Each structure stands twice: as C-alpha cells, then as structure tokens.
Amino acid sequence: MTVLWAKMLRSALIYALFLSQSSAVQHILAPSPAQELPPGLLNSMRLYSEYTAAATCPSNFNSPGYTKVVCEPGVCPMLEKTQATVFMGFTNWTPGNTTGYLAVDHTNHVLVLAFRGSRTKGNIQVDGQYEQVSIPWICQGCQVHYGFYSSWDAISQYLLSAVRRYYSVYHYPIVFTGHSLGGALAALGAVLEDWPTVVTLYTYGAPELGNYAFANFTTNAIGAQGTKGFEVRVTHTNDPVPKVLSRDEHISKYWQYSTTSPEFWITSKNHVPVSKDDIEVFYGIDNMNGNLGTKTSDPFAHNWYFGDMAGCTGD
Fold first, then answer.
1. Can you tell me the distance from the alpha carbon of 13 to that of 45, in angstroms, rounded to the nearest whole number?
2. Position 189 in a domain
3. What is the average pLDDT across 293-301?
4. How far apart are CA 144 and CA 191, in angstroms?
5. What residues are annotated to the active site?
C-alpha cells in the first residue's frame, strides 16, 4: 500500500474498527424498488466528485486567489476542461483543520464551495467527537454530531461573507460538495445557513449528521422537494463511513443517528467506471435498501466515487 493510500484510508479504517454487525437504526423503511437516476444527473455527479477530489490539492486550498482549479494528471478529466478559477482557499481552520476552496466555474455557471475529507490528526479528532449537541433554534428536537457542528460553526461566517460577496457579482447558483468529513461540513453549511439563493449539495461517502429529527429537517430543507435546495447524497456499495454512526453498537447505545433522503447508491466495484445503470436511487430516511442495509464493510469502497477521491498526494 502506498503512503498516499495509507493517508487517505486512515479515517475510514478507524471507522471500520468501530463497525458492528448489530444495528440500533430506528425508523427503518420496508424494502422498496429503486428509482431511476434523473436524466442528466450522472455527468453532474461525476463533475462535482472531481471538484471534491480537487479539495485535497494544496494548489487549490492554499491558493491566494484567481488561480486555476487543478488536480494531479488523470484525476479530474471533466474539471480540467472547465473554466474554473479558485477565488480563495482555506486550510487548517480550527477546530478540526477544516480545509477547502471556493471557486467559480464559468463553463457551467456555478459557484462551488468544496471541502476536503479527513487527512490530518485534527480531522480525525473531529470525526471521533460523535456525541451530539442540541440545536433547538434550528429545529425542535434536533441533535447533531458535535465535531462536525463545531467545525462548521467556526468557519461559517467567514464563508458566508465570501459566498455572498461573489454571488453579488456573478449571480450563479451555489454548489456545495465534499467527500467523507468534507461532505458532512458541506451538508451542514447547506442546510444551517441562509444563502442568497437555493443551493445544490453533492456529498460522497459522507457520514450521518445527527438524529432522526435533524435528518428529517435536512431532508425537508434540501431533499427531493427541499425548500432551500437539493441534495445528492452519494454512497458506494458497502463503504463503512456513511453508516458507521448508526451501526456501531457503542455509539448507538447513547446517540441515535439517521441517514437523509434521497440516497444515490453506486453498486459497481472499486476502480470500475460508473454508468447510469450502476446507480440506484432510494427515498426515505434510514432506508435500508442501499448502503445502510449492507452487512459487510470495505474501507477501499470509501475512496472510489466515479474516480479516485485521493485527488492529490500533498496535504
């Protein structure tokens, strides 16, 4: 195993060590047939997975501004063809070493806020702060993961200000995206704040965010018929990360975690190109038809979403 793979799999392996075959998932839905992928969504899912992979690249998150969004050769073929420019990068924002970048894509006419997944000790510490905090000012009965919430809360005003400033110039739709921990931060940002326009959220292998009440609130805000935008929550086969918080018997003994709806479940194997026929769409909170219902876990599945989510070798 290369050093790169070892670094990218650290967080997923820690999650896998926690994973239990017993389940304390509540509000489980009965099996239901998968829905078809909406027309045109496949290319968008692939493009924003590349934006997410690019969040691992120092040239992007260390950018002083107005530099081209880049990846290592072969990692982001769609992104390389776009006119995408980093407005600003941010790195190691405490707590949690939150890292990513804000970009403008003049080819697709969007603003993109991308968050890096777990790579540093600070990232992994935040992942492990799975006790929940109540947020009644957001929604009654809602509780969220303490580590994710504290990380977003620390950077929220900085990013709100930046996004509003650039939106006032371009008036482009806003896309939030992230892989793993980055997906959790992107989701909280999309649902908790008041943005100047509706947002679209693309997450890849993101963990659960909070309890059933918060999953219900999130689904209503950015789910299939969301009032604030639309969420594309992508999972891959038996990736352990999207299900570990509700499946681990130690965590679920004290804290109840739920998944949001809808889920876009990739069924193809690792390192295999993803086609439309490889994606099944399921609706319903805590739906057991996709990733949540898998009985085994493969940490390597966490790092393959339309391509290699490693992105760049540097931290």
1. 25
2. yes
3. 97
4. 12
5. 180, 239, 302
- At 228, is the pLDDT very low, low, confident or very high (cuts 50, 70, 90)? confident
Confidence band of 3 (pLDDT split at 50, 70, 90)? very low
In a domain, 171, yes or no: yes
Q: What's the pLDDT band for 222 if we cut at 50, 70, 90?
A: confident
Supply angle C-alpha 254, 256, 259, rounded to 5: 150
Burial of 225 (0-12, 13-18, 19+ CB in 10 A): exposed
Per the structure, the complete domain to which residue 266 belongs is given by 50-303
pLDDT digits 0-9 by tens, 239-284: 999 999 999 999 999 999 999 999 999 999 999 999 999 999 999 9
pLDDT attached to residue 314: 61
State how many domains the chain has: 1
> Could you tell me the pLDDT band of residue 225, with boundaries at 50, 70 and 90?
low
Give the containing element (helix H, strand E) for 79. helix 77-80
Which residue type occupies 271? Answer: H
What is the C-alpha to C-alpha distance for residues 246 and 230, in angstroms, rounded to an integer? 24
Model pLDDT, residue 32: 52
Q: Residue 57: which CATH number?
A: 3.40.50.1820
Positive/negative CA dihedral, 17, 121, 179, 302: negative
Do 272 and 308 touch, CB atoms closer than 8 A? no
- The 8-class DSSP code of residue 116 comes to -
User: Which pLDDT score, from 0 to 100, does residue 227 have?
Assistant: 64
* Alpha-carbon gap, residue 200 to 224, rounded angstroms: 11
Give the mean model confidence (pLDDT) for residues 205-233.
88
Residue 99 placed within a domain:
yes
In a domain, 195, yes or no: yes
Using the 8-state DSSP alphabet, how is residue 78 labeled?
H
Query: Cα angle at 140 between 134 and 142, to 5 degrees?
Result: 40
Q: How many CB atoms lie within 10 A of CB 242?
A: 30
Query: Residues 147-163, buried b or exposed e (16+ Cβ, 10 A)?
Result: bbbbbbeebeeebeebb
